[in-house]
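Sanity check record (used in CI):
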Amino acid sequence: MRSRMDTNYMKVAHIILTYTNPQLTERLIKRLSHNKFDFYIHVDKKYSLEPYLYLQQYPNVYFIKDREDVRWAGYNTIKATFKCIKEVAATGKTYQYLNFISGQDYPIKSAEYILDFLERNNGKQFLEYQSFEEEWHEAIPRITKYHFTNYKFKGQYFLERWINRILPPRRIPNDLKPYGKSMFWMLQIEKALYVVDYVESNPHLRRFFNFTWGSDEFVFQTILMNSPYKDELVNNDYRYIDWSAGGSHPKVLGMEDVEKLKASDDLFARKFSVNTDERLLDILDTF
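Expected output for Peptide O-xylosyltransferase:
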């Protein structure tokens, strides 16, 4: 039996979904540099890979080859995530955890702290979730109405309104009870693959998700909360996110947030912009 402190056992793949600032991604990688951490970068297919290629100079950095055209709140985000998971699994390397982050995230704990956290909690799955029916009522229209967010064509919003006016509310297949909240997670690789396999082996479910809104915030939660792994789930993704600005986007963090970040038990924070003050990241590197 392996001990908790056997660091030869725990290995983590960080999946970074990005399209913004290669220099911010570089800082994230340098901050998380550890021989037990690998980094898999998915650059949105709409953007050139060229500005990111210099990151290959760092050890344990790889690029996802089968890239996806990611659309905000569209199902393509899930397709991109699934591609990342499958490419990581196909390497044949042994990873205990996958950590899913974006290019606008940044660690607020050291690599050693994060590794120790996962060692101490090995066997648990970390993602934020609420029941649509009991808690997250405002999310119900995401699945009961048809959404063409994943597409771009003339008249799409008119057609969306017309279809939702004449057709009955949609129902999620397989009698699944919907759960969701945040798109970020830390999962054991076999649990992430379970979600991929479940969705891809149920074409009717994949078609259903394709016409929802913000599926990246509920696909993983829904599948896992309706799975044999439900009891392993911890309702916390350990991300510091400030929604005080209102709307569908979190506040861009700044120097005024330093004390809150320092006091947080979270492992990562978001979001940071391409114009983030370098002093803020310098301070976070000391945590």
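Residues 12-129+182-284 form a domain with the Spore Coat Polysaccharide Biosynthesis Protein SpsA; Chain A fold (CATH 3.90.550). If this sentence no longer matches the regenerated tokens, the check is flagged for review.
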